[in-house]
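hey m, so remember when u said the tokens were messed up on ur end? i reran from scratch. heres the input so u can diff it against urs
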Amino acid sequence: MEYLKTLKNNNIIYSGTRTYKSLQQSTADFSLRFVLSGKEDYCIGRRNLTIYPDSFLILNKGTQYSSIIDCASPVHSFAISFDEQFIEDFKRRRMVKGDKLFKVDYNIQETVFNETIYPFEGDMLLNIQHLKYYLDCGMQDEKLINEHLDNCLASYFKIYTEEISQKADRLNFLNRSTKMEILRRLNLAKEYLYTNYNRNIGLDELAEYACLSVNHLLRTFKQAFSLTPHQFLVQLRLQRAQVLLKNTDYPVNEVVNLIGFECPSSFIRLFREHFQTTPLKYRQSA
């Protein structure tokens, strides 16, 4: 279902399915961008980021970007743009209520957030699913819609704390600004893995993209993400395999090729170790 809903408080919600699209624009407000099926490519400056159903992207107010959908099968995009006053009111209410996130994390008091790829899971996934379901069913009560948007913002701030503040704190540097700069570079490496997960990626290539030495990348990546880049890549490939097994009819051998594995037997072994089931059983139960 396609719609562009502008609320009285200037929050905007978009849902639509397209096959081919190319847009160059800038954001009027802080926004969350999701892909519920397929993939969508974003270009922000020199960075290329690809969003899949297991991830989402945030764009700050005024960010210039291009968005490209170029595939044979339809891609379902979903986006929320939050009015600046709505965000400020949200923060104020949370602080008055004594929300612990707003007491311990000064980063979420800022108006500019890290424009990187975040995991689309947990409360955020449930809140977006509920919001879209009610909108698809024709819900018009803006008070209820804004309650769902409030929950989506709360979910984002929780994810932001986990993905930015807590990961920065794990880095072994004394200076806070140094931690944030190293994490920014590590997120470049993470984005590169998200976007290029289905091909062989060398450590030299990854380190160069992140503007770090190989040794520095290995050491700090493990500190921040509790995984080596290779372990992170394997985990990401397995997550993408789940999506393909659930939403397509590709044979397992083709799924193996699509996610960048070379050996079906090693894929099946890793999938079983990670999810405690085989690919075929997962497909049957999904």
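this time it looks ok to me. The mean pLDDT is 90. if urs says something different then somethings off w ur setup not the seq
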